[in-house]
Automatic annotation (TrEMBL):
It comes from candidate division CPR3 bacterium 4484_211. Keywords: Cytoplasm, Magnesium, Metal-binding, Nucleotidyltransferase, RNA-binding, Transferase. It is found in: Cytoplasm. One of its GO terms (biological process) is mRNA catabolic process. InterPro entries: ExoRNase_PH_dom1 (IPR001247), ExoRNase_PH_dom2 (IPR015847), ExoRNase_PH_dom2_sf (IPR036345), KH_dom (IPR004087), KH_dom_type_1 (IPR004088), KH_dom_type_1_sf (IPR036612), NA-bd_OB-fold (IPR012340), PNPase (IPR012162). This is Polyribonucleotide nucleotidyltransferase.
């Protein structure tokens, strides 16, 4: 029997948001069509067969960008089908995953796949907001155990006023781009880019979002309830209570203290040795997976109990203490900038490379093409955790961490007019013991300064954690890997001395309030300032000059109408300039010319040539020129780089000239006066009139 089509809508930020179920993808366990303005997404949810729960929820979120959604066809001449997910698609999939994952039961044994397909897109309505609303509704309808509803909104900030779900043109002038998802009670996920916003303003933005999240959650619940399927029942095999008691007793009585040692190698070795003992002692009585789960349960309990009772962390630090810092710059001789940042057992090497703007990254999106001149890449090789693994394309996590570090530094990157370079920063994680993304932020700031990039100020990042137990909350600064794994929150905060530039919040319990986040942000600020002070002791401002291996680039502005002349027929003129001066020239339609080369002398030579081509030749002006060629009827004189004129034989001297070469020869420097410019821009010059002219010589 075909299910009825149900639809419901609500006004959010002056635009209608509608959800519809029952019309599309009926084979899926649930499918919801979400529409916000002219942005339309289809969300499908399918629950797979029972799988062995390996200690994590088998959830997969795919975000499908379709170019037809924006009325576009792929630019490649050879491939017209959409290919690998773009970085934006990966980031949006992560946002949805991070929003919904904490609300699933951890022991749910069946695979869940959420597929978001963007069918139509406009510039004013972010599809990820629509996707989260539709995903929330689809999960409620599917019957999958899930503690929703959940909704998301964006908050902008302009002229001191908060903007709900800002349009694209509003975001251009906004100092804040905050995406927050949450239930009717708690904040679940945050993703934010900011222009050095004070912590107090961030909290006000979160408080501004709360009533709108409440409204949306009620709307989603009311929409989904009539169509909801009965909740899927599932059973988790329980071991015999008596055997479980024996296992827990053995684990507690023989708990290896070194499994919480500060050094992760000691910690891992102690845990592995104890697990082998446990497996041998209870062989055949219980699965290894269950024994490992019970041991990790006790490990988590001991770590958290030490914080709750003593206020001390497993590595001996106080709650707000930062791990020891080690900082170096200028490590690699041939790179343009380099830095090493170590915090405890986390070590990141960051390298900066500069190039001309012709090497900007071109990005094809559903709404058009974009360029990016500041690029941050983050690499997390398996050896950084002492493991063996495959190297290859970046995984979702690497793309996400790279984007976060890029977002953190973007507000301090100089504009193209000030610094006409493409900037690529690569963070190589050499050792991981928690908070590698924020170590990448610190390393990037140091590396950019070492490269001489005139960033506005230094940027540092810190990851904050939370232990939430029995109504008591303990906020941890600079969390290590174990605290991230067994804690209740991973809250990354990056910024300058003035304020926040990037935020990312992931939770596990869903019990996070604005009051908790306010405390965490204030504590994070103290840690950030401590780290910035240590960074400033090594390098406190950008170097005054670039590396001698970096390209020299200058920018000049010419009349936009002259760009065609600089290019020349079929590009012949600009090619000649580049070949002659060994430079690369990037011409913009607005008249901006960027010249890059191996040294300043060649760049200046190309600059003079282009300035000559773009100059207006005015009749009556006197120039000092160089004779380039002598012919029987006259001489060709270059009056400025790239511009020649003809001095007819009759204009060389007042008297009759029998042999022109007795009066003038190639290489002579002469004064000439412009006496005419024809419709084909050919210039007529005179030497004899210039000699009698008393005006200034150019």
């Amino acid at each position: 029997m075909k299910k009825p089509i149900l639809e419901k809508s609500i006004d959010i930020a002056g635009r209608p948001l509608s959800l519809q179920v029952g019309k599309f993808a009926e084979q899926a366990d649930a499918s919801v069509l979400g529409r916000y303005g002219d942005t339309i997404v289809l969300v499908t949810v399918v629950c797979g067969p029972k799988t062995e729960n390996g200690g994590f929820l088998p959830l997969r979120v795919d975000y499908e960008e379709k170019l037809y959604a924006g009325g576009r066809i792929k630019g490649s001449r050879f491939v017209k089908r959409e290919g690998r997910p773009s970085e934006e698609a990966v980031l949006n999939a992560r946002i949805i995953d991070r929003s919904i994952r904490p609300l699933f039961p951890k022991d749910f044994p069946r695979e869940v796949q959420v597929v978001v397909t963007v069918l139509s897109i406009d510039l004013n309505n972010d599809p990820v907001l629509t996707a989260i609303a539709a995903t929330s509704a689809a999960l409620l309808i599917s019957g999958i155990p899930w503690k929703g509803p959940l909704a998301a909104v964006k908050v902008g900030l302009s002229n001191g006023d908060f903007i709900l779900n800002p349009r694209e043109n509003e975001l251009e002038f906004s100092h804040l781009d905050l995406l927050v998802s949450g239930t009717q009670k708690e904040i679940i996920m945050i993703e934010a880019a900011a222009e050095e916003i004070p912590e107090e303003q961030i909290i006000k933005a979160l408080e501004f979002s709360t009533p709108h999240l409440d409204t949306l959650n009620k709307f989603i619940q009311e929409f989904a309830s009539p169509a909801a399927e009965p909740e899927i029942a599932y059973e988790i095999p329980e071991i015999d209570p008596a055997l479980k008691g024996q296992l827990l007793r053995f684990i507690k009585e023989n708990f290896p203290k070194d499994s919480l040692a500060p050094n992760h190698k000691v910690r891992d070795a102690a845990s592995e040795e104890f697990l082998q003992t446990l497996y041998e002692r209870f062989e055949g009585k219980c699965s290894k997976q269950e024994m490992k789960r019970l041991f990790e349960q006790e490990l988590k309990h001991v770590m958290r109990e030490q914080i709750l009772k003593e206020g001390k962390r497993f590595d001996g630090r106080s709650l707000d203490e930062i791990r020891p810092l080690e900082i170096e710059v200028d490590l690699l001789p041939r790179t343009h900038g380099s830095a090493m940042f170590r915090r405890g057992g986390t070590q990141v090497l960051t390298i900066t490379t500069l190039a001309s703007t012709s090497l900007e990254q071109l990005i094809e999106t559903m709404t058009g093409e974009e360029t990016k001149r500041y690029i941050h890449h983050y690499n997390f090789p398996p050896f950084s955790t002492g493991e063996v693994g495959r190297l290859g394309y970046p995984k979702r996590r690497e793309i996400g961490h790279g984007a976060l570090a890029e977002k953190a530094l973007l507000p301090v990157i100089p504009g193209e007019k000030t610094f006409p370079y493409t900037i690529r920063v690569v963070s190589e994680v050499l050792s991981s013991a928690g908070s590698t993304s924020q170590a990448s932020v610190c390393g990037s700031s140091l590396s950019l300064m070492d490269a001489g990039v005139p960033i506005k100020s230094a940027v540092a990042g810190i990851a904050m954690g939370l232990i939430n137990e029995g109504g008591r909350q303990f906020i941890l600064s600079d969390i290590a890997g174990l605290e991230d794994f067994f804690g209740d929150m991973d809250f990354k905060a990056a910024g300058t001395e003035k304020g926040i530039t990037a935020l990312q919040l992931d939770t596990k319990t869903g019990e996070i309030t604005t009051e908790t986040l306010s405390r965490a942000l204030n504590q994070a600020r103290e840690g950030r300032l401590h780290i910035l002070a240590a960074m400033n002791q090594v390098i406190s401002e950008p170097r005054k000059s670039l590396s001698r291996y970096a390209p020299h680039i200058i920018s000049l502005q010419v009349d936009a109408k002259k760009i065609g002349k600089i290019i020349g027929p079929g590009g012949s003129t600009v090619r000649a300039i580049q070949e002659s001066t060994e430079t690369a020239i990037d011409l913009k339609d607005n008249g901006t010319v960027l010249i890059s080369g191996p040294d300043d002398e060649k760049v200046q030579q190309a600059k003079r040539w282009i300035e000559g081509l773009s100059q207006e030749v005015r009749v009556g002006t006197v120039y000092t020129g160089k004779v380039k060629q002598v012919v029987d009827f006259g001489a060709f004189v270059e009056i400025f780089p790239g511009k020649e004129g003809l001095v007819h034989i009759s204009e060389i001297s007042p008297g009759f000239i029998k042999d022109i070469r007795q009066h003038i020869k190639e290489g002579d420097v002469v004064k000439v006066k412009v006496i005419g410019v024809d419709e084909r821009d050919r210039v007529s010059l005179s030497i004899k009139q210039a000699e009698s002219d008393k005006q200034p010589v150019f």
